[in-house]
Amino acid sequence: MDQSAVSLIDVSSYLPGEPIGADYYTQYAESDALRDNLMFRAPRFRHHVGEDETAADMIEQAAQGIIERHGREVIENVDILITHTQLPDIPFCGAGGGIAHRLGMRPSTVLDLHNGGCAAFVLGLGVARQLLAAGAGQTALIAIAQNAAGQVFDQPAVRPKSQASVPGDGAAVGLLTRSDRSPILDAECRNYGQYAGDMTYNTDPPRKWWQPGPGAAYIGFTEDKITKVLARGNRQVPEVALAVCHRNGLSPADIGLLVTNQPNRVFLRNWREALEVPESRHVDTFDECGNLFGAGIPINLDRAITTNRVQPGEVVVMAGFAHAGDFAGAAAIRWGGRPQ
């Protein structure tokens, strides 16, 4: 065994509630300037978090597959917990402490990541790999909850907007160990701080998001911003994926499975074409789940493993970008097979 190796040995996921069809939004849709934009072509279905369902509730459900396959004691003895919650349940506080308590964990390290956005799982892999390789523990759990679709985008004042029908909710966890079972070959994380200001959260009439007042908050999209985000996403995701491949002597033909975040059909198609990966080797659940934000990569990976779309020994490349393009990351693993 390679004593320095760190492996992503398993993932499990959770989708809340029953699927919600596109016709749910059709009844509320109003004409707006972005209605026909390719960014906002609605998926056929998506899921919404329950009215009283918390991020810790979602992660607890997502962790059940790991518990069933590896035993509760493996979760309870995790040394490092890394979390990302799209919409924190209360201001100021990340979900890490509550998730650790809910799962019966007493980790020595708890990190709540926010800047990773839709690529948070990749960022978590990179951070966990560094910590475990440095001797900070033997196991790590990465927990991602996307819970904004049913809480932000389904508000009555936001629901009619073209952006509302695209997001879906879900959660996933990934278990890492110091082993060479499914080694993380490499990870590449890039920050583009110059684009951070392009992500805005607006109200009409204007106010700060935390101030009381009329008008629900929504993401501030414009045609100009969308054009820039499309250009950045189309470039960044293939760039980080290829960087990981090239450092490890791999070509796109060596990618057994490509797993990306899934903002819309346009990005999914463009990323496949840029990396010359056939559709059969790129996981796409957009029409089943919508845009799952940070939970998209681990949920799609769980789906692919469960449906035998990736075989032991194959290279899995995960890649995504966040927000308006202020972060992008990719990671590659050599999949060793799910424990029976």
From TrEMBL:
Keywords of this entry: Acyltransferase, Transferase
Coiled-coil zones: none
GO molecular function: 3-oxoacyl-[acyl-carrier-protein] synthase activity
Domain Beta-ketoacyl-[acyl-carrier-protein] synthase III C-terminal stretches: 245-335
SUPFAM superfamilies: Thiolase-like (SSF53901)
GO biological process terms, semicolon-separated: fatty acid biosynthetic process; secondary metabolite biosynthetic process
Every Beta-ketoacyl-[acyl-carrier-protein] synthase III N-terminal domain range: 115-193
PANTHER family tied to this protein: 3-OXOACYL-[ACYL-CARRIER-PROTEIN] SYNTHASE 3 (PTHR34069), BETA-KETOACYL-[ACYL-CARRIER-PROTEIN] SYNTHASE III (PTHR34069:SF2)
The protein's name: 3-oxoacyl-ACP synthase
Organism: Mycolicibacter virginiensis
